[in-house]
Amino acid sequence: GENVEQHPSTLSVQEGDSAVIKCTYSDSASNYFPWYKQELGKRPQLIIDIRSNVGEKKDQRIAVTLNKTAKHFSLHITETQPEDSAVYFCAASRYNNDMRFGAGTRLTVKP
Amino acid sequence: DAGVTQSPTHLIKTRGQQVTLRCSPKSGHDTVSWYQQALGQGPQFIFQYYEEEERQRGNFPDRFSGHQFPNYSSELNVNALLLGDSALYLCASSFPSVLGGAEQYFGPGTRLTVT
Fold it and tell me: What DSSP string describes A27-87?
């Protein structure tokens, strides 16, 4: 089955700096790669996603890149703000939607 | 649109008991997936229901079972509860995408504590 690894487990940045979180996956058939943000005590919220037919996708301060050959994808957050502090999860799934999550990255943005 | 709803919010059970958790999908969604999220970890895929049948299953024992009703709502049942079953149980709904891998919307979760 699919195995998703996520790094780093914790990340601390100064407000205004960029943050990068990286994930690798094992199943070459995976074709959908979402990123979720989870604040303490709340549900995971989808922040951006990318499909295997696209190499990069951007939404304001958030971007995701995908390298299918290397089987890794990354989340980039620019101009970080304190409200970006949360746990971020990457995930990967195939056509049948059995989504597998990484272990999460706790991002702290210091004012 | 109410989004994905789950009940109950919290639940405390004793080891060996059985529990049923409920989920109502987002309007227009027909697929429901269940996840177990232990403290400090990522969600772990339990199974997915589509057209009232279990379509995919993760690495969970048969003590975990489910059901989907004609209105697309779903139940997760766990028998013979173990202390290790204590976790946040998340339900997510989606609508199949012809592109594969559909966007999943999560409910608020049910916090299960087994004592």
Answer: -TT--EEEEEEE-TTS--EEEEEEETT-SEEEETTEEEEEETTTTEEEEEE-S--GGG-EE
pLDDT at A19: 98
Instruction: Determine, for residues B100 and A104 on separate chains, whether the beta-carbon distance falls below 8 Å.
Output: no
Instruction: Please tell me which residue of chain B has the smallest CA distance to A2.
Output: B58
Give the single-character DSSP code of B106: E
Spatial CA neighbour of A35 closest among A69, A10, A4, A79: A4
Token pair of A108 as six digits: 């702290």
Whether a cis peptide bond, with omega within 30° of 0, leads into A8 is yes
Please state, rounded to an integer, the average pLDDT across all residues of chain B.
93
Token output for A102: 């990484």
Contact A97 B101 (CB under 8 A): yes
pLDDT of A1 over the 80 cut:
no
Residue B95: pLDDT band (50, 70, 90) is confident
Distance of CA B66 to the CA centre of its chain: 8
Chain B CB contacts of A1 below 8 Å: 58-59
- Is any Cβ of chain B less than 8 angstroms from the Cβ of A101? yes
The residue written with tokens 């199949």 in the block is B96
Whether residue A99 and residue B45 make contact (CB cut-off 8 A), yes or no, is yes
Which residues does A69 contact at the CB level (< 8 Å), separation at least 6?
none
